[in-house]
Write a structure and sequence with these properties.
The protein is mainly β. Helix content is about 0%, strand content about 65%. The chain has strands spanning about 10-20, 20-30, 35-45, 50-55, 60, 65-70, 75, 80-85, 90-95, 120-135, 140, 145-155, 160-165, 175-185, 190-200, 205-210, 215-220, 225-230, 230-235, 245-250, 250-270, 275-290. The strands form 2 sheets. Strands 1, 2, 3, 4, 5, 6, 7, 8, 9, 10, 11 and 12 form a 12-stranded antiparallel β-sheet that branches. Strands 13, 14, 15, 16, 17, 18, 19, 20, 21 and 22 form a 10-stranded antiparallel β-sheet that branches.
C-alpha cells in the first residue's frame, strides 16, 4: 500500500438522506509529523457526531471501482456496510446505491495538476438512489427512496478559511444537486480565494470555478453568492450551530470544525435573466470555518 507521506490525510464523505433524516460517514486515514499512521471513521447525524479511531492496518483502499475498508465496515460505489461497536456508538446497517452520477472531469480543473496543494477535493457522485437502513444507538434510520452523495479530500490540512454546501433533495422530475465551496488556497508565497461549484439541473451539469473565471461576491455564515460571467449562484442557509467534527491540520486530526448536516436552505441559479433553479432544500449540509 502507498501512503508513506508524513503530515498527510485522506478521507471520503458518504452522505445519505431521506426526508429530514440524514447520516454521513467519513472513513479516512491520517499520518502525523512524527510518522504515526492511523485510520478512523467519523459518523454525522442531526443529533450527534462520533470519531472512531482504528489501527492503520485495518484500512484498505481500491480506486477503481472505489472501495474503502476500515475495521469491519466497507464503503464503496455500490453501497456501504457498516459495523461499529464502541462504548459510545453502536452503528450497523447496509445501504445499496443506485447508479452514481459523476461530474465532468475533475472538480479542481487544472488546479489538480499543481504540485504541493494543501488540499485536493474530489466528487465521486452528485446523486444516487438509496435502498437500506442504518441503526445507530438503537435508533433506526430508514433510507430506502432517499438520495446519496460522495466526495473526497486529501492533502495536508483543510483550508484555513472555507465555506462548503451540498444538497440534492430538491423536488423535481430529474435529479437536482448543488455542491459549492469557497476556500483560502495557498499557492507558494501568495494565496487566492478559490471557488468550485457544480449545479446539476435538467439533466446537465453547470460548473462555476476559479479556473473558469468564477468568484465569490459574498461568503458568510448564512450566504454564498458566486458569479461567473452571466451565471449567478445564490445559497442562503438558516441560522444555527453545527455539530463538531475532527478535521486535519498538518496530518493531525486535531482541528475542530462544525457541520450542519441537515438544515433548510434556498438556492437560486440563474444564467442572465433565465432562472434554471429556484428551490428549497430541507436537508442541506453546510460548513463555514475561519470566517
Amino acid at each position: 500500500m502507498k501512503h508513506h507521506k508524513r503530515r498527510y490525510f485522506e478521507g471520503w464523505y458518504f452522505k445519505h438522506q431521506r426526508g429530514d433524516q440524514a447520516i454521513a460517514f467519513i472513513p479516512g486515514i491520517h499520518h502525523t509529523a512524527a510518522g504515526a499512521r492511523r485510520a478512523f471513521i467519523q459518523v454525522i447525524t442531526g443529533a450527534g457526531t462520533w470519531f472512531v479511531p482504528y489501527p492503520y492496518e485495518t484500512f484498505s483502499k481500491r480506486d477503481n471501482p472505489l472501495e474503502i475498508r476500515v475495521g469491519d465496515s466497507v464503503f464503496s460505489e455500490r453501497g456501504i456496510t457498516v459495523q461499529i461497536d464502541t462504548p459510545e456508538l453502536t452503528c450497523s446497517g447496509t445501504v445499496e446505491y443506485g447508479p452514481l452520477l459523476p461530474i465532468r472531469g475533475d472538480i479542481m480543473g487544472y488546479f489538480a495538476a499543481i504540485p504541493g496543494l494543501q488540499c485536493r477535493h474530489g466528487v465521486a457522485s452528485l446523486y444516487h438512489t438509496l435502498r437500506g437502513e442504518v441503526t445507530i444507538n438503537e435508533a433506526q434510520i430508514e433510507l430506502t427512496g432517499g438520495q446519496g452523495y460522495v466526495e473526497s479530500d486529501r492533502g495536508r490540512s483543510f483550508p484555513r478559511r472555507y465555506t462548503w454546501f451540498h444538497s440534492n433533495d430538491f423536488l423535481g422530475e430529474m435529479p437536482i444537486s448543488v455542491m459549492a465551496a469557497v476556500a483560502h488556497v495557498p499557492l507558494g508565497p501568495v494565496a487566492i480565494q478559490g471557488v468550485i461549484a457544480s449545479v446539476y439541473v435538467d439533466g446537465a451539469e453547470h460548473r462555476l470555478a476559479t479556473y473558469h473565471g468564477g468568484r465569490a461576491m459574498r461568503c458568510t455564515e448564512r450566504e454564498m453568492v458566486l458569479v461567473q460571467g452571466r451565471d449567478r449562484l445564490t445559497i442562503r442557509v438558516e441560522p444555527g450551530d453545527g455539530l463538531p467534527l475532527h478535521a486535519p491540520d498538518l496530518g493531525e486530526m486535531t482541528r475542530i470544525i462544525r457541520e450542519r448536516i441537515s438544515c433548510r436552505a434556498t438556492v437560486t441559479y440563474q444564467r442572465g435573466d433565465r432562472v434554471l433553479l429556484n428551490g428549497v432544500s430541507g436537508c442541506a449540509s453546510f460548513e463555514c470555518s475561519g470566517y
